[in-house]
C-alpha cells in the first residue's frame, strides 16, 4: 500500500480486543441473542467467551468436532462430531442436553432456523400449543442416577435437569428446524433439534431442467456438502456442495441416454415447503413425540439402574450362601442347602456343615450385612419404580393417547404420515407396559417380604446356636421360610422380569389366568393376550419398537416430500485437492424491502437469497482473484411472475491481496477478510477487513438456467468490478489472518483470528454504541 494510507478517513471499525489464544481456533460462531462467542479449537475443545473476553466454560466432547451452530434463541449450542453425532449443550454451563446419532459420517455443517412468519403473528406472540399433560400429571420424572456414582460420571446429571426440561418443553418454543449435513451427502432435519422429521440423500435427488427439445434430469456423484442454510420461512434449503453433476437425458419421444458431466462446486435448492405447510401439525406431533422420547430414556435408564442394583445384591447373597454348598460337599453329605435349612427349621439336629456355616462362614455380622444389602437394594428398586419408572410409563400412556387423537384427524395428520393403526398399536403397548410395572411392584414387594422373613429366621438361629438371647429379634413366619426355600433360594423372579428372556423362554402363567385374559379381549382388553408371558424389559422393548414404528412414518413421509427444485453450477474444480480445500462461501436470506400478498391473500414477508463465494484461480482462465455474488436464485425458480430474476457480479480483489474468508452481514452487506501476499501468495503479515454494501453493487442479469449454458457465472467475466482499497470501507489488521471469520449480525461485531493464536474483535458499525457486557 502507499504511504498515504494512514491519512485516509477515520477508520470505520473499532478494535475492541486483541487477545492471545491457548490453541488455534478452527470454528467460531456468535450467539444470535447474547454477547457470547463459541469457539472450537484444533484439539476439539469448545470455549465460550463473553464479549469482554471473560471465559465462561470449556468442554471437550472427546471426539473431533466438525461443525458448530446456535439455536435461534441462543440458549443451546450445537456440535457436529466426526462420528456422525449431533450434540446439544446448555449455554449456561456447557452440559450435554441431548445427543442424536442421525448420521453415519462426519457432520460437516449445521443450520438451525425458526419460522420468521410465526414471529410476525398479529398477536405479537409465537404460536403456542397447550400441553394438557400438566393438567393431570406432576412434572415429568428425572433420570435416575446409577448407584454409587456422583452426578456427571455417567452423563445423567442432576444439575442439568432444568435445562434438559427446558429443551424438551417445545410448547413454549417457536417452530424451528435443525438441519445437519454430513460429508457423504446426507441431510437430516429435526423439529426443535430433538425430533427427527426427515432426511435427504443429495446423491439420489433428481435435478430437473428443460431445454427446447429434451428433458434433462441430473444427479450428483461423489458429492460433499460444504454449507447449508434454511430460508427464514422454512420453505427452501440452499446447499453448497462439490461433486460431479451427471446428466440423464430423457428424449421427448422416449428413451434415455447419459449426457455430459460437470465436476465442480454447485448450489442446490431443495423445496422444504412441507415444513411451513404442515407447521401446526408437525409442531404438535413433535411436541408429544419428543417428550415421549425423553420418557423412554427415563425408563431405559431406570431398568438399567434396577438391573445393576439387584444383580449386585444377589451376587453378594449367593457369594455368601454358596459357601454352605461347599461345606456340605466337604463333610460328605448327600443333601442340598434347602434340605439342610428345612431340617433346621423342623427342629432336627443341626448338621456340622450348617453349624459351621452359620457360626463361622456367615456369622451374625455377615448375616446382618447380607440382609442390609438385599433389603436395601429392594427398597432402592421400589423408589426407582415409584419416582421414575411408573410416572414415566403413565405419562407416556397419556401422550400416546394425545397422538391417537391427532391421528384420527385424518384430513390434517394423514398427510404427514401419522397413521392411526400404528399409533393405536403403540397406545396398547403402553397400556401393557403399565400392567407389567404394576405386576413388578407386587412381585418385588412379595420377594422383599420373604427375604426379610428368611433373614430374621436365620439371625434367630445364629443367636440360639451362640446361646445368646433372641427375644428382641423380629418374629418370623415358618410357612414363608418354607416358601422361600422352595421357590426363591435358587430362583430370582425379580431379575427374571428385569432381564430380556433367552430364546424360547417365557414366564409361566397358569391356564386359568390366561383364559381370563383371552376372555377380556371381547370386552375391550388388550388384543395381544400373551403379554403376561413376557418380562418387563421385553415389554418395554416392544413398546419402544411400536413407538419408533409410528414415529418413523412421519419421518418417511416428510422425507419423500423434500424435493430438489434446481441446481446452479458455480464453478468447475480441476483437481481432487481443489475439491477438499477450504473455499470461502456464505449463504444467507434477507428480507425484501417490501412485503407482498400471497396467493391465499395472506400478508407475508418476502426473502432474497445471497450466495457469496471465492472462485479458485484455476477454475476459469480469464477470471482470477475474484469473489462472486449471486442473488435471487430461489426467487428465480419460484417467483418469476413477481419480476425477480437471477443476478450476479464478480468482484476482483485489489492487487496484492487475496480473500481468506467472507461472511454475509445484516443490511445486505458482505464482510471480507483479506491477506497481503507476494507472488507465491505467502503471507507477509498484515491484513484488511473490508465491508461492501451488496445491495449497491451493479448486479448483472444472468440468462436462464439450462444445462446448455454449463457454468452460467462465466457470463459475468466481461463485467468484473475491480475493488480499490481507497474507495472501500476497510480496516487494517496488524497480523496475518486465518479462517474462519465470525460475524454477529445482531450485535454488529466480527471476530478475526490471527495465524499466531490471537483473536481480534471489531465493532463493525460506526454508530454502534459500546456493547454491554452485562449479559
Automatic annotation (TrEMBL):
InterPro entries membership: APC4 (IPR024789), Apc4-like_WD40_dom (IPR024977), APC4_long_dom (IPR024790), WD40/YVTN_repeat-like_dom_sf (IPR015943), WD40_repeat_dom_sf (IPR036322), WD40_rpt (IPR001680)
SUPFAM superfamilies hit by this protein: WD40 repeat-like (SSF50978)
Residue span(s) of domain Anaphase-promoting complex subunit 4 long: 266-468
Keyword set includes Cell cycle: yes
Keyword Cell division: yes
Record domain Anaphase-promoting complex subunit 4-like WD40: where: 29-114
Entry keywords, A to Z: Cell cycle, Cell division, Mitosis, Ubl conjugation pathway
Pfam families (UniProt xref): ANAPC4, ANAPC4_WD40
Name of the featured protein: Anaphase-promoting complex subunit 4
Organism (species): Rhodamnia argentea
